[in-house]
Amino acid sequence: MTIPQAAEQGKTLTAVLAEQGKTLTAALEKGGWRTTMVDHMLDKARRIADDVLFPAAARVDTTGVIPAGHLDLLAQEGFYGLAARDDVDGATFARIVETLASGCLATTFVWLQHHSAVTGADKSVTAGVRGKWFEPLRLGQRRAGVSQAGVRPGPSPLAARRVTGGYILDGEAPWVTGWGMIDTLRVAARDGDTIVWALLDTAPGPTLGVTPLDLVAVAASHTVHLRFDGHFVPDEQVTGVLAYSDWAPWDAANLGLNGYLALGVAVRCCRLIGRGPLNAELDAVRVALDTGTPQTLPAARAAAAELALRAAATVTVTTGSRAVLAGAHGQRLVREATFLLVFGSRPTIRAELLRRVQRGRNE
Ligand SMILES: Cc1cc2nc3c(=O)[nH]c(=O)nc-3n(C[C@H](O)[C@H](O)[C@H](O)COP(=O)(O)OP(=O)(O)OC[C@H]3O[C@@H](n4cnc5c(N)ncnc54)[C@H](O)[C@@H]3O)c2cc1C
After folding, report:
1. Which domain holds residue 62?
2. Strands 238-243 and 194-201, how do they pair?
3. Does residue 126 sit within a domain?
4. Best substitution site from 61, 175, 225, 246 to test ligand 1's pocket, by max atoms within 8 Å of Cβ?
5. Which of 64, 120, 136, 163 is the S-S candidate for 239 at Cβ 3.0 to 4.6 Å?
């Protein structure tokens, strides 16, 4: 049984295997590819991307649903705890993001949001936080999203007000990815010049309103808008507080990671097109992201986003009219690359991207 055969029956491969009393992990293990060594996480990511994620990517896009088996597989194979492993360095983590994104951007995008909560729980000095949250998050038994609304410059859309025993949250989190696939939200809210980081349960209620967003790409990420209306967070869920002035240097040094999502899209495009001039550009952008500094990362991010867009356009033009049929790779990759022009952006990235996309006009 293959994914296309399962799709012909209107089912996911995971569902068909479940009917047979098998799990996807066991089936793949029987196929001889499962490895356990840390060094082989990247190899596992490659196999998952090529054998599981990419064959289902068009279906994920057209149905707007990520099969639960995809995220379960990533959890079973240790990918939800990646950020907490001392033996997985930043370069390996980045390569895994790129590799998984080359399989299915929506699945990778949802999975990627989880790691902020893992790190927050792991490093928290608040009594009880690590004990309660870290292990379930590391194992992917709990799955998390993140809202960074409270770290934006200027007036924060989400305020935290100190009260006895905790904080009250008021305002909005305009973008939260993974709704319905996460049970935990790591949220940043602002109390004056302080960022308050907390872990919340995602159950909606009278103080937490949820509005789904209608997206033209990665719709399967189930990204929503949240409204907090006097939402109480007890102290034992506050992972930490940070002076706002300490955020900007951290953010500038960590801008690179989202660039590997764009790189993953570009990688898939290059593989669909076949070896050509874009491969050299791909290698150069990867080096720029891998070796980036706070000063150079915005340009590297912009280069990655622009390359993904051009590579997706190349797939579309090369394929011809069939590329705009629903389910075709070309149109999906162009829409995904469009999303990556704006996701996780900063003013410096935007300025460099505008310079790049307007270049043709001025030549
Ligand atoms: C489909 C989709 C899903 C998204 N999912 C999430 C999610 O799950 N969690 C989440 O937190 N965000 C999420 N975002 C938001 C996105 O990452 C930010 O909005 C983006 O970084 C900046 O977008 P913007 O240029 O429209 O600026 P705005 O979001 O309007 O922000 C205004 C200003 O604040 C700056 N800014 C925004 N975010 C930060 C930050 N974290 N640190 C420093 N400065 C910042 C921007 O550069 C900009 O100058 C999602 C966005 C999209 C399109």
Report:
1. 3-113
2. antiparallel
3. no
4. 175
5. 120
Let me know if residue 123 belongs to a domain.
Answer: no
344 C-beta closer than 6 A to ligand 1: yes
Residue closest via CA to ligand 1's atom 41 equals 148
Residue 204, pLDDT score: 83
> What total number of domains does the chain contain?
3
Task: Decide whether any atom of ligand 1 lies within 6 Å of the 244 Cβ.
Answer: no
Supply the pLDDT for residue 33.
Answer: 46
pLDDT, position 38: 47
Protein residue closest via CA to atom 1 of ligand 1: 223
Q: Are residues 226 and 300 in the same domain?
A: no
Considering only CA atoms, which residue is closest to atom 24 of ligand 1? Answer: 345
Atom of ligand 1 nearest to the CA of 349: 47
pLDDT of 11 reads 60
Query: What pLDDT shows up at residue 227?
Result: 97
Task: Give the CATH number, domain containing residue 97.
Answer: 1.10.540.10
What count of other Cβ atoms lies within 10 Å of the Cβ of residue 253?
12
* pLDDT of 133: 96
Q: Are residues 228 and 280 in the same domain?
A: no
Residue 12 lies in a domain: yes
CB of 224 within 6 A of ligand 1: the answer is no
Q: Are residues 280 and 334 in the same domain?
A: yes
Question: What pLDDT does residue 214 have?
Answer: 98
- Could you say which residues of the chain have pLDDT below 50? 4, 32-38
Residues 213 and 263 occupy one common structural domain = no
Residue 359 is predicted with a pLDDT of 86
Asked if residue 248 belongs to a domain, the reply is no
Are 149 and 226 contained in the same domain?
Answer: yes
pLDDT of residue 15: 62
Q: How far apart are CA 138 and CA 42, in angstroms?
A: 18
